[in-house]
Amino acid sequence: MEETPLRRAWLRGYRQGDVELSVARATLVREQLQIELEGTRARAAAMQTEITELHRRIDDLRRREQDLSHALDEMRERREVQEREMGARAHDIVAEAEQRAAALRTEGIRQVGELQQQVEQLLGLRAGLSAALKRVTQDIADSLDRLAAAPARAIEQLPPKQPAEPAHEIDERFLR
Questions:
Q1: Chain-centroid distance, C-alpha 149
Q2: Which residue range(s) make up the domain with 73?
Q3: What's the chain's Rg over C-alpha atoms?
Q4: Any alpha helices (H) in the chain, and if so which ranges?
Q5: Exposed e or buried b for every residue in 96-122, given b needs 16+ CB within 10 A?
Q6: Which of 18, 25, 61, 162 has the fewest CB atoms in 10 Å of its CB?
Q7: For the chain, how many structural domains are there in total?
Q8: What whole-number distance in Å separates Cα of residue 122 and Cα of residue 131?
Q9: Residue 124 falls within a domain, yes or no?
Q10: What is the pLDDT along the chain (176 residues), one digit of tens a residue?
């Protein structure tokens, strides 16, 4: 704003028009400054409200961050507990499986031993049976040879022949 110099009036101080103009300008400037001040105060109040809202949001976010951090810590702790439990359970399962495998291996070895004994018994029985069959075959061949060499007589006149005792015993299972 330009300041206009006040001119002196003749005998009475300053010219009334200059003084009124200067007062009017000052009043306008004061009113303009008052309006600007009110606008600035309104903006300051709005900014203060916004700052208060931002502080509230920051506090909410901090609380939420703390809640999430706490929840994350709880989840980590649960995960660690579950990992320990699963590790222990896996160890137990592996130990149980190894124990079962050892038991199955032992049982398999026992069964193989029993089968070997049975095979040996069967081989012995087969050898005995083969020997018995050879003797029976030999006895039949001898009987056929005697029949062929002997004079023809009536079968009723021949005394019944006693079966020969085998050299060693035949297992009862094969006598059936």
A1: 90
A2: 8-110
A3: 64
A4: 16-149
A5: eeeeeeeeeeeeeeeeeeeeeeeeeee
A6: 162
A7: 1
A8: 14
A9: no
A10: 566 676 666 667 777 788 888 888 889 999 999 999 999 999 999 999 999 999 999 999 999 999 999 999 999 999 999 999 999 999 999 999 999 999 999 999 999 999 999 999 999 999 998 999 999 999 999 888 888 887 665 555 555 566 555 555 555 655 54
